[in-house]
């Protein structure tokens, strides 16, 4: 299927992840070198996937062809997640075929172009969108359901990214945040602006700013960078715990 796609559209990488709610996504297929896989797969599975627009769209059971720019929040490319993790991928653009599976599972076949290659053109995107029904059909034939166990990988990666169950709603459970503050934290980390958070929560922007000030005070931080650092600390602690 990947070879067939390459005959029609140029891309640098392809990766397929399965998604089960907030669980660590199993890797189903990749074209990365071991060094590239460390960034695109191992680091991603440690926790950044929880902030990935593709993960959110898969959990929401979107179907068909989507470009990252169509799914990303309005401040995604200025978010600390983008600066601290996503920029390491050196991608110009990522697009994906979203495939809902039985139950609440889904998989996403991502095609990636590096900055040196530039973004996908309008004609490329139109062609990929037309090819989506065939890609989705092929993917469901290959994976009618997600495997219970992730395919064997190197011991190095298994040590870096063991299987854990994460839930964004409970990441901040150990901290003294209200339910509304936890929701604000989640949206900020995804890359939503104050205005976008206000729309999502159906409150006024001024209330969002009050929530953010209270969050920063409670967590003893001063910026979104500090918030992302605290997120990483919590994820690392969960991975390290027996």
Automatic annotation (TrEMBL):
It comes from the Bacteria. Residues 170-235 form the HTH luxR-type domain. Pfam families: GerE. SMART domains: HTH_LUXR (SM00421). GO terms for biological process: regulation of DNA-templated transcription. Gene3D superfamilies: Winged helix-like DNA-binding domain superfamily/Winged helix DNA-binding domain. The keyword DNA-binding applies. GO terms for molecular function: DNA binding. The keyword Transcription regulation applies. SUPFAM superfamilies: C-terminal effector domain of the bipartite response regulators. Keywords: DNA-binding, Transcription, Transcription regulation. PANTHER family: DNA-BINDING TRANSCRIPTIONAL ACTIVATOR DEVR_DOSR. This is Transcriptional regulator, LuxR family.
């Amino acid at each position: 299927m990947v070879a067939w796609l390459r005959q029609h559209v140029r891309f640098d990488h392809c990766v397929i992840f399965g998604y089960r709610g907030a669980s660590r996504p199993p890797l189903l297929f990749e074209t990365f070198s071991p060094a590239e896989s460390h960034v695109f797969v191992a680091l991603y599975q440690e926790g950044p996937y929880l902030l990935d627009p593709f993960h959110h769209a898969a959990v929401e059971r979107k179907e068909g062809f989507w470009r990252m720019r169509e799914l990303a929040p309005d401040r995604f490319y200025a978010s600390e997640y983008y600066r601290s993790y996503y920029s390491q991928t050196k991608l110009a653009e990522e697009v994906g075929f979203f495939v809902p599976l039985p139950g609440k599972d889904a998989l996403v076949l991502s095609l990636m172009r590096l900055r040196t290659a530039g973004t996908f053109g309008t004609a490329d995107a139109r062609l990929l969108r037309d090819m989506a029904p065939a890609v989705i059909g092929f993917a469901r034939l290959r994976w009618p359901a997600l495997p219970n166990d992730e395919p064997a990988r190197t011991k190095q990666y298994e040590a870096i990214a063991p299987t854990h169950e994460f839930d964004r709603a409970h990441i901040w459970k150990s901290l003294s945040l209200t339910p509304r503050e936890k929701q604000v934290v989640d949206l900020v980390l995804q890359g939503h602006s104050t205005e976008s958070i206000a729309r999502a929560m159906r409150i006024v922007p001024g209330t969002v700013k009050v929530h953010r000030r209270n969050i920063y005070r409670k967590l003893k931080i001063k910026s979104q960078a500090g918030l992302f650092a605290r997120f990483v600390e919590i994820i690392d602690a969960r991975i390290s715990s027996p």
